[in-house]
Amino acid sequence: MLISMAIACDRCNKEAIIFQPYSGRHLCRQHFVLDFERRAKHEIRMHRWIVSGDTIAIAMSGGKDSSALAFFLKKAFGMRKDIGLFAVSVDEGITGYREMEKIRRIADGIGIDWHSTSFREVYGCTLDEVVKRKGESRSCTYCGVLRRGALNRRAKELSATRLAMGFNLDDEAQSVLMNVLRGDAGRLTRVRVPKEGFIERIKPFRTIPEREVALYAMLHLEGFEPKRCPYAKNALRGEVRAMLNEYSYRHPATKFALIRLGDALPLMTERESIGSATCPSCGEPGSGECSACRILHELEG
Length: 301
Ligand code: SF4
Prior knowledge:
The protein has helices at 29-47, 64-77, 100-110, 119-123, 127-134, 139-157, 169-182, 185-189, 210-220, 236-250, 254-267, 291-300; strands at 16-20, 25-28, 55-59, 84-91, 113-118, 162-164, 200-202. The protein is an alpha/beta fold and 301 residues long. The chain has a single domain (50-270), classed as 3-Layer(aba) Sandwich (Rossmann fold). Helix 2 packs across helix 9. It is globular and about 65 Å long. The relative contact order is 0.14. The mean pLDDT is 91. Bound molecules: iron/sulfur cluster. Iron/sulfur cluster binds next to helix 6.
């Protein structure tokens, strides 16, 4: 909760700008930023997500999460000669939604190189065209699969060794809860192992609440006010977000508990062998035909 009355920071006497209900602490700007960056760095260190020689592609949508991530990574690793950083954005082809020029300006302001790709370039069609033929109800499923594939391809072309995603605690907790609500035991227990051809995705903000990522972005950046995707209403995620926020208001540790559950379940299952299969249609990683090619072949059908 953002502070409206003057309350002192629990670390110093300056005015607090945020209250963390799960820690019980009020923090001023300086101590909020220190706490935020310490937690993101801890997550990176714990997973050994960034090591000497890495080149990090930051998936940048132009929203608060990915813009904050680009700013944070530039601040934390921008001076390192042994680590490369650049941003990459995907234009899904949704009329009036993705503003590539705006994203380029944010990346320029942060001081990182920016690259782009699009569904049209990679798959020969836009998301609008997919939706026109397949209907709106699964727009976000198609979009997610195709975006993941497009990002992976572009990042590989640019020799990235890691793909940094701006997912925050809320996104991660919602994903776990969505799998629970769908009864998707396969996804809940799936062990993520490196797959040949897939660049490892890293999520430095996965334990930081969405509103703290938004505050961090607001304190450092401007120009990322989001437009609402016209297909967002079709996403189950919206309902889950509302439900989880309502429950977490009374039980502030719930989102942390959900990601702990999401991390613990795969440890209880057998580890799959490291996959090396490729899709026979496009040569990208996948056992059998990959999800993106399945969607494209459905469209042809
Ligand atoms: Fe894609 Fe759905 Fe997000 Fe729109 S709301 S950008 S369709 S995932």
